[in-house]
Amino acid sequence: MTKEMPKERGIDHTFNLLTEGYNYIGKRMSEKDTDVFETRLLGKKMIVMTGRDAAELFYDETKFKRSGALPIRIQKTLFGVGGVQTKDGEKHRIRKAMFMSLMTEERLGLFRTIMEEEWKRKGREMERKGKAVLYDESEELILRGICRWTGVPLTDVESWGRAYDIGAMIDAAGGVGKRYRVGEDARVRTEEWVEDVILAIREGRLQTEEGSAAHVMAFHEESGERLDLHMAAIELLNVIRPAVAVARFVAFAALALHDFPEWKDKLNTQKELNNFANEVRRFYPFTPFLGAIVKKDFEWNGYAFNEGDAVLMDFHGVNRDPRLWDKPEEFNPDRFNGFVDDRFNFIPQGGGDPNHGHRCPGEPVTVTIIEESVRYLANSLQYEVPEQDLTINMVRMPTLPTSRFVMDRIRVVG
Ligand code: HEM
Questions:
Q1: What are the tens digits of pLDDT across the range 274-319?
Q2: 130-177, pLDDT tens digit by residue?
Q3: Residue 141 and residue 174: Cα distance in Å, rounded?
Q4: Which residue's alpha carbon is nearest to atom 23 within ligand 1?
Q5: Has 360 been labeled as part of a binding site?
Q6: Distance CA 46, CA 26 (A)
Q7: pLDDT of residue 78
Q8: What keywords are assigned to this protein (predicted)?
């Protein structure tokens, strides 16, 4: 006999999700004192889960699949239609291995050097401007860096426009109306740009380093055939786009340095910098949740999950779960000293093993960007933080500090 799953009453709760944002799931879990409840979103029954054990369950590939789980509207803006995120089983493993092959120690070392150089360049540029919006500057800076790393040519003339487009694709993920349409158009333009790059590589008009993402994706083969041009562009953008998304963490990191300045003096070692970057990824809201579909009937904690049921895993909640984190509402990078990562208890970019499941392959890239940004902001740049609206709107997904972190009287000091 299975138990009755706690249920949210009413016909549909999409409106509640849209008006409560990041707080929607946590609020109901506490009210119902549960790790799982049933609701209806976009007219469909949905099982919502939270907690470390639910995360482990979510990544059990014998129980869940991804194909059919990602709404097409998200694929048409954020991810691209039919990319690695939507694949299961052997097809996923082969495609995923292509992403993991980019993350060698040598390539990541090169990326760190590129980020250091790009920050020096950006610092001088911001000093000339005197006043700048850190979030916008970071998007452009990261795009320059990731294009160099992936082997995608980017001219000075196009860098701001391309960064804006990629930002719009990311922002459209949780948007409706104009916000969504702007992102959709931006994806079409951006895919065309990257398709041209892949074609030029294949035709030998553009030389790229072996091991770089552009080279790997241009020549990757599945069942003896190259990816079609469009899919190769989508997958190359699956490296470029999320890297640009790290600008949100850069803005949050600057906010942390501003709100908790006592940590600035504790950034002397690589370990301290790494702790700070991880605490930024844990503390500030980014990925709220993700969906999957039940593959075949099973029971979990006495509840029935039936084939075809849609589930939503609460990523945000796990990073703030008091059963896992002491005083989760406190910003404390030191909590990562001695922290034992069991792959499901710290999941800002998904859980499990990135080599086998869907966990983000880009965590080392993300952490490198945050670390190098914090290093530069804390040691090499002097700036004032003028009066502005630094609140984080928890209804907006994905969110960021409202004023996007304005800096004034910027001076390079190191
Ligand atoms: C997957 C978050 C940065 C590439 C994911 C997933 C999340 C995530 C939550 C889904 C995990 C799942 O489906 O179970 C983030 C966040 C980032 C970030 C918050 C920083 C802002 C990056 C970077 C890259 C990257 C820098 C590439 C260099 C990917 C790819 C996938 C993915 C290709 C799909 C993996 C798969 O389906 O197997 N990311 N990511 N991400 N991420 Fe990231």
A1: 999 999 999 999 999 999 999 999 999 999 999 999 999 999 999 9
A2: 999 999 999 999 999 999 999 999 999 999 999 999 999 999 887 778
A3: 24
A4: 362
A5: yes
A6: 15
A7: 78
A8: Heme, Iron, Metal-binding, Monooxygenase, Oxidoreductase
- The residues spanned by each domain of the chain are 14-412
- pLDDT recorded at residue 323: 97
CB 39 within 8 A of CB 46: yes
Nearest protein CA to atom 4 of ligand 1, as residue? 362
Instruction: State the DSSP code for 52.
Output: H
Structure tokens at 14: 């999409």
Domain at 14-412: CATH architecture: Orthogonal Bundle (1.10)
For ligand 1, pick from 74, 100, 112, 349 the residue to mutate: most ligand atoms within 8 Å of CB.
349
Would you call 312 helix, strand, or coil by DSSP? strand
- How many CA atoms lie within 13 Å of 66's alpha carbon, on the beta-carbon side? 22
Cα of 35 from ligand 1 centre, angstroms:
24
d(CA 173, CA 74): 6
Whether omega before 288 lies within 30 degrees of 0, making that bond cis, reads no
Query: Is the ipTM, as predicted for this complex, more than 0.95?
Result: yes
How far is residue 22's CA from residue 400's CA, in Å, rounded to a whole number?
A: 12
Angle, CA 397 vertex, CA 394 and CA 400 arms, to 5°: 65
Q: Ligand 1, closest atom to CA 92?
A: 38
